[in-house]
Amino acid sequence: MSEYSAWDWGIGSRTVxxxxxxxxxxxxxxxxxxxxxxxxVAAVVKTxxxxxxxxxxxxxxxxxxxxxxxxxxxxxxxxAGLACDGDWTLCVDGEPWEETYxxxxxxxxxxxxxxxxxxxxxxxxxxxxxEGVAWETxxxxxxxxxxxxxxxxSAAVVQTVPLGQADVFKFKDGAYSVAVDGTxxxxxxxxxxxxxxxxxxxxxxAQIRHTLFDYTIAVDGKPWAENFNQVWEPLFHPAKNxxxxxxxxxxxxxxxxxxxxxxxxxxxxxxxxxxxxxxDKLAAIVCPKYGRWTLAVDGTxxxTTFGDMxxxxxxxxxxxxxxxxxxxxxxxxxxxxxxxxxxxxxxxYAPVFSPDSxxxxxxxxxxxxxTIAVDGKxxxxxFDQCFDPxxxxxxxxxxxxxxxxxxxxxxxxxxxxxxx
Length: 420
Description:
Blueprint: E1 12-18, E2 28-29, E3 33-34, E4 41-48, E5 51-56, E6 59-60, E7 67-73, E8 79-85, E9 87-92, E10 95-96, E11 103-109, E12 116-122, E13 125-130, E14 133-134, E15 142-147, E16 154-159, H1 168-173, E17 176-180, E18 183-184, E19 191-197, E20 204-209, E21 215-219, E22 222-223, E23 230-231, E24 235-236, E25 243-249, E26 252-257, E27 260-267, E28 269-275, E29 282-289, E30 292-297, E31 300-301, E32 309-315, E33 322-328, E34 331-336, E35 339-340, E36 347-348, E37 352-353, E38 360-366, E39 369-374, E40 377-378, E41 385-386, E42 390-391, E43 397-404, E44 407-414, H2 415-419
Antiparallel strand pairs: 1-44, 2-4, 3-4, 4-5, 5-6, 7-8, 8-9, 9-10, 11-12, 12-13, 13-14, 15-16, 16-17, 17-18, 19-20, 20-21, 21-22, 23-25, 24-25, 25-26, 26-27, 28-29, 29-30, 30-31, 32-33, 33-34, 34-35, 36-38, 37-38, 38-39, 39-40, 41-43, 42-43, 43-44
Protein name: WD40 repeat domain-containing protein
Organism: Desulfomicrobium baculatum (strain DSM 4028 / VKM B-1378 / X)
């Protein structure tokens, strides 16, 4: 959180930009994006016939492009957009990469934002581009792209064997693998999904299908010895090279670690598992009874359940608390420490813990208006749009980035004032 300490944490509200003003002609303005520190707001704007730019606060990028899309702020505050001028490139703060490609999509950032990557499609082949440098080998099919946390490595599921239409025999023999930094594993499988890096980005694990009926996890191309009826996305332990994955046996779901069952298959569903930051706890979203959803920690389900959905599970920085979103009868709420908030919303977004783990904040929507709620208490003002909240390094204040009446506002408020 140290990078946040340089931000302006003085309590108060100020208007950063009037969205109706820009130093270029604007025919229309697309979805707004706010910088992490709240100091900038940006959007793709149409400036003329077949001509697009990006307006940051009230200033347009030069030059203009035929199209710009997928505008995103990186964690370090740089603004990246995919731009077309015949061919495609990626512009960072208005500066394009030197290289151009047939098509680019799905921008990815390293954890600190220092590395920007995206996916490339060129002459019916696919791969990844990191900081303007594409994989040496592109593939007839690539998907499930991922960038390592440090941005130095990349991986994707790739097709390594040509397949004709209805070529079921080649398919059953295995035509898919994982390419790491553009180099495939030396083994193929019937299917592969969701490659994931370990903590130091030296290993990759993925779901695989050996045959039409046998599923397991492979690490660096080597499958677990055990097969299952089905598996979900693997996850490396944060401090060890062990891999945990939900697995299905005899119609029920449990959890396996390095192929060995650690949660007995007793659930109707188990997925989206997370280790606590230190790795001493393992939690997952589970369905303990048909049609009821909750969280389980080390295999033990919570008592608070929801009938529609549970999502966006988040561990606190100290690993002692856990929060998620729950949906019941079409309404959303937040639940943490096995207790639901009293308030219900039309929509909630991913919960955010304060650095000291004492508070939970979330962006919420009710009757078309947005605001921020902390520990179940709403900020006093509603907005036309707002972005996810950010706590100050000491957890005492919260940054609210919001749009109201056509103006983008940056607000810093005391957590104590919101929760009362």
